[in-house]
What does this fold into?
Amino acid sequence: MSLTLRVWRQQSADADGAMSTYEVDGISPDMSFLEMLDVLNERLILAGEDPVAFDHDCREGICGACSLVINGEAHGPERTTTCQLHMRSFQDGDTLDVEPWRAAAFPVVKDLVVDRSAFDRIIQAGGYITAPTGAAPEAHATPVPKPDADFAFEHAECIGCGACVAACPNGAAMLFTSAKVNHLGVLPQGAPERESRVLDMVAQMDEEGFGGCTLAGECATACPKGIPLFSITAMNREFLRAARKGR
It folds into this structure.
């Protein structure tokens, strides 16, 4: 395959950025998108040029680090992470625009790398339990109804990639925050902080400068792990209940 890549290049958070065009050929349809970028970078290094900076880690669709917007879509045209997106999803001769997440709360570090530490601070605000657990407890020590366990597991699948923010026209982080709130809130281990958790995490989300949610639904469509849109309405109910109780 031969492709034309238009890649966002930005030397630092304070520098101006622009799209740079590169021609790449000899790309196998079985390569992942990140492997294709590796090929580009090898050629840039051999030519004495600065390679394109992009975030990656596990390359197995687990860690959520590979945050790219491809032709205007978070993670590209398939509902998966960028590292699991293969070049067979594109056609020979295609032109691909490759950009970082675009959100005020995710400032660009360099090229395609953005700072997603805002997510870490939301987690720090309440995404934990304070019950001392010691060693791993016996699996059946605390019975959990299957509907609650299924609900918790569904939301625990969130990998914090930020695709929901990148896809949202408002740059909202409600799907990410609701996944973390709902995951713990429905389990008995998370019950002691149930009210304070949702209030603190939503407050931190607002403080980070994410946009407001209007339930456009683009977040759930882009989520590679399929976190459902009703997660947001479930968190809103939790928030209103906690606010009325005043903790």
